């Protein structure tokens, strides 16, 4: 079993183009420190994120999956993030009901100007994942 | 087959992986819960120890498994697929339909004792295993799938290499190369069929002759049972139109089956009109159409594996019927589905001068 | 107070007479119902237009060969409704149909629905060798008493939604001790009442017995909690899922018989779900072996995330599974959990939108981090 300190989590991050991806960019250009564990994937809107992306990511061994979008009310497409919030809430509930570690899924609202928040959220999340350990699905043959 | 023959086969595979002849092996393995066996693509040769080349059940037809690995291309891994003769035949048929890329696959078949109906095993795995072991020991296939019981192709060689167990000395097997690829494998491993294959050929021939007789008798009876429109409708009266049979079938590869498409879905007025003409219209309609239609579409490629019957929730004798019809349709073209890779599919080829007896037939 | 039709005749006979009158008098042009379809006594759904054929109808027979919601969807999706049809369906089939209507897969044009308070159905496998027939008289006894028959589908035993919510007409069956001697049908909507008017039938004022139904619901809830506790024990993380779904053969029968799964090309049968060689090879960087065809759990969890919100827990999925995976109980358990989150009962209210296509501006603040 991997010692918790030794493993570098691999965390998928679905970032909406208009807010959180820009926020992540800002974190970068501001030279803020945030973990290398994050694998960003740009989507146009957080509502593009099908629960299947998270499920597939989890089953293929991602230690964590982050979905980040605009703050409710500020969605570039008006309503996308409201739907994203519902879908995420549903998926988290499904994980909980099935006894899967729901802590591996996170939803965050990060605006384009919130470089600091992006750094904080990703650092926090990475620490949580380090605590709960590597995703056991990684080594499962019979998925 | 004694346990040690399975070990012999696995040793052969592991050695082949060690020598780089294969990078991976596609072979059945018991699932963690112990209630079934599934195909696993194994890259780490140490895991081959836990595999079972001839498990008591065929949960997914090997042709389907090979197709799921190679349909989109050959990849970089050299893969040995260890399956039964009917699964190798299905793989060949799928190749002809561009659903399998054979380049990096070595097809290895084994003399097949048959498989138990899936549900019989999964409902009580311990008992199922005991029944299967007894059946193997006594060469008694009365508990196997009905189509396995009359199978005359259980030792047919249609792949690259065949592992013969019938007539072999204790703990040993015959390794029979059937293609250039197969020969290369044996040469690289410095193996050859020591001695003659006479004892294997003799036992196989005996079994085949026996089974051919059984098959002919069984089919005669079955034809009487299901023949004619009334009997056919009755045979499939319990059908729920779930189409499990179609999806379990290795050679039914269409992503959107005709019988699931919009073509068979009518407007409301049509259903009403049919109901009015007959007084009663069963819903969903076109059950018999589905079965006869599926037969028309795939029977020349049917390998009589029986996966369809295992998947049927209402225990219809699908495999028995389809296998019987397949014998007839394939016989018409002197074709045996999947016996080799070169023979073109009967429906994709023609002779200018043939089947005149079908023209203006007066029978 | 509801309007009801009360007749001094057995429920079965009274109902058949009602259906026959409707057809004979051309009030409706067709009756959709379970029916004996051959001399062996096999039961299947049928659209009946000849009133004489109705003698073989078995409206609330305790079998469900398919979820009738699928049939009603197929019947009404294409074309125009020129002639009125009466459909006799079970509560979960009706709920399934309503969920399909919300997805634009059917409509109620000239379709009148009649249902009954439901005592559950036997698993289809029992009907294969007609095993269920020996339980029939005890079954009807337990329906009269509002008790749970031990041989019905597990999800039926745990069903609290045995009252049809949107039916035009409801037959009083479950917990009705008088059903052998009296037919009682409630006419809930104008559509239903119009049928009575057309037959010149007098309706009386009568309400259903809420107390009896509540008592029955309590029994079902207790059974549900017991069955949920059982399934919850098995749903303990990824290993639990691997154990339960290990014997899945990927036939997708569960999806095909599900009333809610209507996608013509399912995501899990599309090219999206296929693995190319590079994909396999990258998986081998993480593990030494991989089950093929891949994606069993992906399919099951994915389907759960797609349709769980509308799952009516009819149990067709479990019945059709060739290897008896308890899919229905799992989907009911998880489905209800997510439905409760949105205070949603699938198919209960035709005007209620599916929770995932609507939102409130303020909600679920607790899941944002």
Model description:
- The complex is a heterotrimer of chains A (143), B (363) and C (369).
- With 143 residues, chain A is an alpha/beta fold.
- Helix content of chain A is 38%, strand content 16%.
- Chain A has four helices and four strands, in the order E-H-E-H-E-H-E-H.
- A four-stranded parallel β-sheet of chain A has the order 2-1-3-4, with helices on both faces.
- In chain A, strand 1 (11-16), helix 1 and strand 2 (38-43) form a beta-alpha-beta unit.
- In chain A, helix 1 packs across helix 4.
- The radius of gyration of chain A is 15 Å and the shape is globular.
- Chain B has two domains: 3-213, no CATH class; 217-358, no CATH class.
- Helices cover 42% and strands 10% of the residues of chain B.
- Chain B is built from 14 helices and seven strands.
- Chain B has helices spanning 3-18, 62-70, 85-96, 118-122, 125-138, 146-149, 180-188, 198-226, 229-235, 244-248, 268-278, 287-298, 307-311, 318-332; strands at residues 24-30, 37-42, 79-83, 105-110, 161-164, 174-177, 280-283.
- In chain B, helix 2 (62-70) crosses helix 3 (85-96).
- With 369 residues, chain C is an alpha/beta fold.
- Chain C has two domains: 3-224, no CATH class; 228-367, no CATH class.
- In chain C, 38% of the residues lie in helices and 11% in strands.
- Chain C is built from 14 helices and nine strands.
- Chain C has helices at residues 11-24, 68-77, 91-102, 124-128, 136-145, 154-157, 190-198, 210-234, 237-245, 253-257, 277-283, 296-307, 316-320, 327-341, and strands at residues 3-7, 30-36, 43-48, 85-88, 111-116, 169-171, 183-187, 204-205, 289-291.
- Chain C has an eight-stranded mixed β-sheet, with helices on one face.
- In chain C, helix 2 (68-77) runs parallel beside helix 3.
- Chain C starts with a strand and ends in a 28-residue tail after the last helix.
- The model of chain C has no long low-confidence stretch (mean pLDDT 96).
- At the B-C interface, strand 1, strand 2, helix 2, helix 4 and helix 10 of B face strand 2, strand 3, helix 2, helix 4 and helix 9 of C.
- Strand 7 (280-283) of chain B pairs antiparallel with strand 3 of chain C.
């Amino acid at each position: 079993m991997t010692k918790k300190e030794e493993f570098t989590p691999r965390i998928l991050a679905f970032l909406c183009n208009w807010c959180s991806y820009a926020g992540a960019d800002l974190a970068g250009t501001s030279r803020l420190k945030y973990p290398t564990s994050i694998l960003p994937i740009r989507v146009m809107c957080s509502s593009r994120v099908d629960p299947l992306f998270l499920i597939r990511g989890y089953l293929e061994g991602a230690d964590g999956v982050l979905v980040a979008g605009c703050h409710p009310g500020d969605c570039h497409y008006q309503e996308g993030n409201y739907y994203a919030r519902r879908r995420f809430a549903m998926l988290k509930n499904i994980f909980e009901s099935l006894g899967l570690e729901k802590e591996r899924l996170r939803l965050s609202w990060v605006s384009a100007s919130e470089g600091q928040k992006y750094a904080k959220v990703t650092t926090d999340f990475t620490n949580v994942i380090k605590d709960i350990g590597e995703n056991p699905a990684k080594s499962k043959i019979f998925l | 087959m004694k346990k040690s023959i399975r070990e012999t086969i696995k040793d052969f595979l592991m050695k082949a992986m060690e020598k780089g002849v294969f990078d991976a092996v596609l072979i059945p393995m018991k699932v963690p819960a112990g209630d079934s066996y599934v195909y696993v693509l194994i890259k780490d040769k140490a895991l081959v120890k836990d595999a079972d080349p001839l498990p008591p059940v065929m949960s997914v037809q090997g042709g389907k498994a090979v197709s799921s690995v190679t349909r989109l291309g050959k990849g970089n891994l050299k893969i040995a697929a260890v399956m039964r003769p009917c699964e190798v035949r299905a793989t060949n048929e799928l190749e002809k339909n561009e659903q399998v890329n054979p380049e990096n696959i070595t097809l290895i078949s084994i003399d097949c004792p048959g498989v138990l109906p899936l549900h019989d095993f999964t409902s009580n795995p311990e008992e199922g295993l005991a029944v299967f072991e007894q059946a193997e020991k006594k060469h008694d296939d009365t508990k196997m799938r009905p189509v396995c019981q009359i199978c005359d192709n259980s030792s047919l060689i249609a792949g690259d290499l065949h592992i013969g167990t019938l007539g072999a000395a204790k703990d040993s097997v015959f390794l029979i190369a059937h293609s250039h690829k197969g020969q290369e494998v044996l040469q690289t491993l410095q193996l050859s069929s020591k001695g003659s294959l006479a004892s294997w050929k003799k036992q196989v021939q005996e079994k085949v002759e026996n089974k051919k007789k059984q098959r002919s008798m069984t089919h005669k009876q079955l034809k009487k049972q299901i023949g004619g429109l009334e009997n056919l409708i009755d045979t499939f009266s319990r059908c729920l139109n779930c189409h499990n049979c179609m999806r379990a079938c290795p050679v039914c590869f269409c992503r959107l089956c005709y019988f699931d498409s919009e073509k068979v879905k009518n407007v409301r007025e049509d259903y009403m009109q049919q109901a009015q003409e007959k007084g009663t219209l069963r819903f969903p309609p076109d059950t018999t159409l589905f079965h006869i239609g599926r037969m028309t579409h795939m029977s020349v490629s049917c390998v009589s594996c029986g996966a369809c019957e295992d998947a049927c929730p209402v225990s219809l004798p699908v495999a028995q019927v389809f296998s019987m019809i397949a014998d007839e349709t394939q016989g018409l073209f002197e074709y045996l589905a999947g016996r080799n890779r070169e023979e073109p599919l009967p429906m994709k080829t023609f002779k200018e001068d043939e089947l005149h007896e079908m023209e203006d037939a007066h029978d | 107070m509801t309007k009801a039709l009360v007749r001094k005749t057995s429920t079965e006979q009274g109902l058949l007479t009602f259906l026959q009158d409707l057809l004979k008098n051309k009030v409706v042009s067709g009756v959709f119902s379970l029916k004996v379809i051959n001399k062996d006594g096999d039961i299947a759904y049928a659209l009946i237009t000849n009133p004489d054929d109705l003698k073989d109808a078995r409206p609330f027979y305790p079998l469900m060969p398919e979820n009738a919601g699928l049939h009603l969807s197929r019947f009404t999706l294409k074309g125009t409704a020129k002639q009125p049809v009466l459909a006799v369906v079970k509560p979960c089939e009706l709920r399934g149909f309503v969920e399909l209507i919300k997805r634009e897969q059917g409509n109620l044009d000239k379709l009148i629905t009649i249902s009954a308070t439901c005592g559950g159905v036997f698993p289809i496998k029992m009907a294969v060798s007609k095993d269920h027939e020996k339980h029939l008289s005890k079954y009807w006894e337990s329906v009269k008493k509002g008790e749970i028959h031990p041989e019905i589908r597990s999800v039926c035993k745990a069903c609290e939604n045995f009252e049809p919510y949107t039916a035009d007409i409801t037959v009083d069956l479950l917990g009705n001790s008088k059903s052998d001697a009296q037919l009682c049908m409630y006419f809930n909507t104008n559509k239903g009442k119009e049928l009575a008017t057309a037959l010149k039938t007098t309706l009386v004022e009568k309400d259903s017995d809420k107390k009896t139904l509540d008592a029955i619901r309590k029994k079902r809830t207790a059974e549900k909690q017991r069955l949920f506790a059982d399934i919850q024990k098995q749903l303990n993380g990824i290993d639990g899922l691997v154990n339960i779904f290990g014997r899945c053969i990927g036939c997708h029968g569960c999806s095909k018989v599900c009333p809610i799964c209507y996608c013509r090309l399912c995501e899990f049968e599309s090219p999206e779900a296929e693995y190319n060689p590079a994909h396999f090879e990258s998986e081998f960087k993480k593990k030494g072996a991989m089950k093929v065809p891949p994606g069993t759990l992906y399919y099951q969890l994915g389907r759960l995330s797609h349709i769980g919100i509308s799952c009516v827990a009819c149990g067709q999925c479990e019945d059709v599974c060739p290897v008896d995976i308890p899919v229905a109980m799992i989907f009911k358990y998880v489905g209800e959990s997510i439905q409760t989150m949105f205070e949603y009962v699938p198919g209960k209210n035709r005007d209620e939108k599916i929770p995932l296509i609507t939102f409130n501006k303020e909600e679920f603040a607790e899941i944002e981090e």
